[in-house]
Write a structure and sequence with these properties.
Strand order of the largest sheet: 1-2-4
CATH architecture of one domain: Irregular
Number of strands: 20
Largest sheet: 3 strands, mixed
CATH class of one domain: Few Secondary Structures
Structural class: alpha+beta
């Protein structure tokens, strides 16, 4: 009886389904995952560590759960933006956990249904297009600096807890943080230690290699030429396929952006997009970038004006004796009224933005 109970408990722990084709254990929502647990989380579930752990006491175990954002949909139904080798900012995976992508920069749209418009880079907040507050899906926002709402990108409550390791002071440092950013170089302590051991082996052999360096210079140059690789993209069957290739002196490597431009030109050469007038923004505002869905030709969301609160000064006017500072305009987050305006009561001086 005891053996039967143990077997039943272990069967539940292993998962709710064993696929016949691959024998892979599919874990259900709320079941343990990671560490020494065999199997993977089922569709639209993520193995997340619910709380920070001590690497000395735990092995990276987590729980299969839905993404924290209730607006998420199954990842199979999401069309992700093209993967990019180099990003102008950080690399992120939006809170739904479906699409690794470049973090959105200032003036670019964010949020939208199931985060389809993207997730902002560090020090930026997905904010209302016209307003003073942050926004979350399904509403569309814009990435910008929002006073009073500076979120720590390594402690974002919208994102799941993730566990990993980095090398600090020559040792593997493993911990958990709540983030959508690519914050770890290694997923586990084991991976980190393997690399550290490899580095130690490399440096121990370096002195021996230096003794033969002069003799092998010419051979090394030839091998370098043969082993030269570069990152490049090409259009294949209507898609940009990128990866490492052998160096070709006859052609320059094609970046992801350049490849996407070629793809859009090819697919959209016979498409005429409706003309949308570009607004002229007040001095306290900036123009957002238009947003086009992956694979589409025409912008889904056109450019529009949004407050740039950084343009507002943070000092108050110096009033003469007997006069007081008086607020005559309160910011409402609308272009043209982005900043609080103060003047000295009874003074004929020009108003002062704050």
């Amino acid at each position: 009886m005891i053996c039967l109970s143990v077997w039943l408990w272990w069967a539940w722990l292993r998962g709710s389904c064993l696929t016949e084709e691959t024998g892979l254990v599919i874990l259900g929502q709320g079941q343990p995952c990671g560490g020494d647990i065999e199997g993977v989380c089922g569709a639209n579930l993520t193995c997340v560590t619910l709380e920070p752990y001590d690497v000395e006491d735990a092995s990276g175990m987590g729980v299969c759960r839905m993404p924290l954002d209730t607006d998420c949909v199954p990842c199979a139904s999401v069309q992700c933006p093209p993967t990019t080798h180099g990003c102008p900012g950080g690399h992120v995976t939006e809170p739904c956990g479906c699409c690794p992508q470049c973090a959105r920069q200032q003036g670019q749209l964010c949020g939208g249904p199931h985060w389809s418009r993207g997730y902002c880079d560090r020090d930026l907040t997905c904010s209302q297009l016209t307003g003073l507050l942050p926004t979350t899906p399904p509403q569309t926002g814009v990435c910008k600096v929002l006073p009073g709402y500076q979120t720590d990108y390594l402690a974002d409550p919208l994102c799941p807890w993730v566990t990993g390791c980095n090398v600090r002071a020559g040792a593997c440092d493993c911990y958990s943080i709540q983030t959508c950013h690519l914050a770890f170089s290694y997923q586990s302590l084991e991976d980190c230690l393997k690399v550290m051991e490899g580095d130690e082996y490399y440096w121990s052999d370096e002195e021996e290699g230096e003794e033969m360096e002069d003799e092998d210079d010419e051979d090394d140059d030839d091998e370098d030429d043969e082993d030269c690789t570069e990152w490049s993209c090409e259009v294949q069957e209507g898609l940009c396929v990128c990866g490492e290739r052998s160096c070709d002196p006859q052609s320059h490597p094609l970046s992801e952006d350049a490849c996407q431009d070629l793809l859009v030109q090819a697919n959209c050469s016979n498409v005429t997009c409706p003309e949308v007038p570009v607004p002229s923004c007040p001095e306290d505002s900036i123009l957002t970038e238009p947003f086009t869905l992956p694979g589409s030709c025409c912008p889904l969301v056109p450019s529009m004006c949004t407050c740039q609160f950084e343009n507002c000064t943070s000092t108050f006017p110096t009033c003469p004796h007997g006069q007081q500072i008086e607020q005559i305009v309160k910011s409402n987050g609308l272009p043209g009224s982005c900043c609080d305006i103060y003047l000295c009561a009874g003074s004929e001086k020009e108003p002062h933005d704050s």
